[in-house]
Design brief:
By secondary structure, the chain is mainly β. The chain has a single domain (about 15-80), classed as predicted glycosyltransferase like domains (Thrombin, subunit H), CATH 2.40.10.220. The protein is about 0% helix and about 60% strand. It contains no helices and 6 strands. Strand 2 and strand 3 (about 40-45) form a beta hairpin. About 15% of the residues are buried.
C-alpha cells in the first residue's frame, strides 16, 4: 500500500547498454541499467549533480534528461518530454 509521498512510476526494463552523458560540456561514459518511458538508471564513475539538465547519447540517438537523484556510481534520469 502506498505511503504518503508515494508516486507511481512506470515499469522498468533491465538492460546493459553503453552510452554517454553530456554534462556541463563534459562527455561521461555511462551504462544504462534500466529504462522506462519516463527515464532510466545509469551507472557511472562519479556522483552527478541533482537537478541538472543533461543529454544522454546512446549510439546515434540523443535525448534530453534531468538528473533526479544521484549517489556515487549511479543516477536516476527523467527524460525531457
Amino acid at each position: 500500500m502506498p505511503t504518503s509521498g508515494w508516486t507511481d512510476r512506470p515499469d522498468r526494463d533491465p538492460i546493459s547498454v553503453a552510452g554517454n552523458l553530456i554534462l556541463d560540456g563534459r562527455d561521461l561514459a555511462v551504462t544504462l541499467v534500466n529504462v522506462s518511458n519516463d527515464g532510466c538508471l545509469v551507472a557511472c564513475d562519479e556522483t552527478l549533480p541533482i537537478g541538472v539538465a543533461v543529454s544522454l547519447r546512446v549510439g546515434a540517438v540523443t535525448i534530453g534528461a534531468t538528473i533526479r537523484w544521484s549517489t556515487f556510481g549511479k543516477a536516476g534520469l527523467r527524460f525531457v518530454k
